[in-house]
Amino acid sequence: VNVDVKLGVNKFFVDEGNPHIELVENPDPAEFAKLEAACPAGLYKRDESGNVHFDCAGCLECGTCRILCGKTIIKKWEYPNGTFGVEYRYG
Ligand code: SF4
Q: N or C: lower Cβ tally within 10 Å for the chain?
């Protein structure tokens, strides 16, 4: 079973309008590339024109992005408020 299928069994409760992770404006491309490679949920993306995209829905709350890039890219990193965020389901 591949990783995408396994991630698909998790459930996410998204706190719309209150993202638990926010990025700086115009993040450094080299730093952003690290996150494209490292985020286990693949949430850091770039389109064909090179524009960066991030959506914290689907975040596994692993903290990798915060540790890897800190304030160079991550403006805000908090755990989601109670009842929101990932719910791990194994099976
Ligand atoms: Fe991705 Fe982990 Fe950062 Fe969430 S905390 S955005 S899963 S690297």
A: C
Residue nearest to atom 2 of ligand 1 (CA): 62
Record: fold of 3-87: Alpha-Beta Plaits (3.30.70)
Average confidence score pLDDT of the chain: 93
Tell me if residue 84 falls in helix, strand or coil: coil
Q: What ipTM was predicted for this assembly?
A: 0.99
Nearest-CA residue for atom 6 of ligand 1: 59
Domain ranges of the chain: 3-87
Here the tokens at position 40 are 């286990």
In angstroms, the first-to-last Cα distance of the chain is 11
Q: pLDDT digits over 26-60, tens only?
A: 999 999 999 999 999 999 999 999 899 999 999 99
Residues with CB under 6 A from ligand 1: 21, 39-41, 43, 59-65
